[in-house]
Amino acid sequence: MKKVSYYYDNHFKIGDVNENLYSSFIEHLGRAVYSGIYEPGHEKADEDGFRTDAMEVIKDLKLGLVRYPGGNFVSNYDWKDGIGPKENRPKRMEFAWSSVETNQFGIDDFCRWAKKAGIEPMIAVNLGTGSVKSAAELVEYCNHPGGTYWSDLRIKNGSKEPYNIKYWCLGNEMEGTWQAGHLSAEDYAKKACEAAKLMKWVDKDIKLVACGSSYEMLPTYMDWDRIVLKELYPYVDYISTHNYNMNTNQGTSNFLASYKQLDDHIKNTERVLDYVKAKNKEEKDIKICLDEWNVWNFQDIKLDSLDDLQGLTTFEVTSAEKWEEAPAILEEKYSLLDALTVGGLAITLINNADRVKIACLAQLINVIAPITTQRNGGVLKQSTYYPFSMVSNYGRGTVLKPSVNGASYKCDFGELPLVEAATVYDKESDEIRVFALNCNQDEDTELDLQFNGFGDRKISKQFVLSGDDLELRNTFESPDNVTVKEKDLSNCDGTKVVLPKLSWNVLIIK
């Protein structure tokens, strides 16, 4: 049996996990809102039309933030269409996803839902087709106590107390030509600076997220961040980046190793931040907001060429016609292999907790999501729900920095340890929690954990996500095909443990 050893010392730490590292995202896209979190008339809908069955499953994730309302959607969205009496709200063509937006759910509805779900909102403003004044007016509507036009209108619409939204995104993927109102880096920096200025005039305490480079395939990758940060650095608190991993016949090893690609992607953003901080002689640190990440296999998008991804042509969604209301699109059916990969990506997030302070799994429900609902029906936890739930529930505390030795494997990202792990120490419970992905496809692997400065330790629990069929998926008929199971530790030797081949594990060490 091959062996990998991780050595830890209580003096060597990466950083503390921010509660917002485990956040998510809801866009007006497909069925994320309509029949996802909101379905008036459903037998389990509350007085506001919110699906309580979906809400209970979401609460178990213990999310920090939920980003809203987009995404590509936000760049051609007028938030004023979604307020006031619902019978007066207009139906609009939604250009990003070729759908019809009914506006039956808007900013007031989202804030009420978030409060009930125990979640803090993170709101994106339209810096594509929208104006900087409209962005500031939205802050006024949400955060000002009263006595002005927009704050009084919020009160009239049923919310006497302000929402006091702290986190605001200055647009979405504005470097992409697929974005409505796409801007160059220079033009975005100018517009975002003005928006930031006005928004902070309304509420000086808000935290702002600048649009960073989204995807490595773009010719502006990293240059965009450098140009934008040169102007925006004093105004913002975070810079965003996005990262999706796709299983496109590159082989199991390379797909599982997506955690390394994400790590490289995050490190690139760090390098630009460090460069601009030094170049501009800035004192504050800007943190990273990975406000979209997930496995996305494009199961119902037809791609003729990479031009489709670069906005030079249009996506062809195969599961819906144009101009439908809340069409069932981008509803990925996630496999065990997808779940293992998501678990690996979560390990990378933990290991970058010193710089990544916000990370939003995109998305939360129905659309490339860990949760699926049926219209007028039930709720399903997809395979990817389980690794995300486990890191959110157990992955809080101080991240320890390891020294790693042992067996390795080769892939397109280089030579990597057979076991990729992240480890946190939770001082309150005095527990060490280890998240470990065994990439060995042939046999089980022994993981030897050694801790210096933590006293005597023993693995008390091992949760395992694994199986013989990597293509196995959860369905409404068989909802437990893929789930996390607790393993018998009767043969465990202290802090040595056997990880099943191709498995994602959580180890609780007391």
Automatic annotation (TrEMBL):
GO MF term set: alpha-L-arabinofuranosidase activity
Chemical reaction(s) catalysed: Hydrolysis of terminal non-reducing alpha-L-arabinofuranoside residues in alpha-L-arabinosides
Domain Alpha-L-arabinofuranosidase C-terminal, chain residue ranges per copy: 291-503
Protein's pathway: Glycan metabolism
One of the protein's GO biological processes: L-arabinose metabolic process
Top EC group: hydrolase
Subunit structure: Homohexamer; trimer of dimers.
The name this protein goes by in its record: non-reducing end alpha-L-arabinofuranosidase
Origin species: Clostridium coskatii
